Amino acid sequence: YLGVHGGYGWGNNSFRQYLSELDPHPFLDGFRSSGGLVGAHAGYNWQFGRAVTGFEIDWSSADISGSSQVSATTIFGPETVDRTDRLKYLGTVRGRVGWLPTDHVLLYGTAGFSWGRVDEMRRRTSTAANSNVTTPFDRLGWVAGVGVEAMPFGPNWIGRIEYLHYDFGAVQEFDVVTSTSPGIWRTD
User: Fold this and answer.
1) What's the pLDDT at 25?
2) Where are the strands (E) in 49-168, listed by range?
3) Is residue 179 within 8 Å of residue 188, measured between CB atoms?
4) How far apart are the first and last CA of the chain?
5) Contact yes or no for 67/31 (Cβ under 8 A)
6) Fewest CB within 10 A of the end CB: N or C in the chain?
7) Which residue from 155, 164, 168 is spatially nearest to 56, judged by alpha carbons?
8) pLDDT tens profile 4-52
């Protein structure tokens, strides 16, 4: 089968990014993100009586984003940091296992591997200097979910409602910023 899909996604990006080495250590403390997605999928199913197994691959273009901001007085003066993460693409390769309670309805579970492309945008504004940095990166993880399919218009057309949970794991990042001024250094 081949198909198209659209939906809505939301997420929780838990992180702590320190702005300054000075007490009380102001920091960005994560954010929630949300937005829409559209894409296409393809798969193949095998039926054994009322049991169904199969596999599916999908790809989605997404606009799921969230942001956070913090301001503080640092050794360089007043400073503000904005961070926005935008999930641009999602893809999965999944197995499916299901059951047909009627001839036209399939209940199923699915699990497999996932991939996501994220743009991390940081804007730092201070009296000393301003910077805008966008860093794209890929995340690999796992995906699992459940769904229901029905044939409302005959055997060649299927409608589906599906929930998928993506998990891209934890990543630890370090940035080191140095100054040309003697005796001044900072780590984020």
Assistant:
1) 62
2) 51-74, 77-102, 105-126, 130-150, 159-167
3) no
4) 49
5) yes
6) N
7) 164
8) 999 999 887 776 666 655 555 666 677 788 999 999 999 999 999 999 9
For tokens 């994560």, name the residue: 30
State how far the Cα of 55 lies from the Cα of 70, in Å rounded to an integer: 45
The pLDDT, as a whole number, for residue 187 is 45
Q: What would the two tokens of residue 24 be? A: 């009380």
- Determine the pLDDT at residue 41: 97
The tokens for 116 are 């996501």
Calpha distance 9→28 (Å, rounded): 23
pLDDT reported for residue 26: 65
Residue with tokens 């829409």: 36
81 pLDDT exceeds 50?
A: yes
Q: Give me the amino acid identity at 4.
A: V
Position with higher pLDDT, 29 vs 93 = 93
Structure tokens at 35: 């937005």
**Single-letter code of the amino acid located at 41:** H
Q: What does R_g of the chain's alpha carbons equal in angstroms?
A: 23
Residue 185's pLDDT is 44
Please give the structure tokens belonging to residue 129: 């200097």
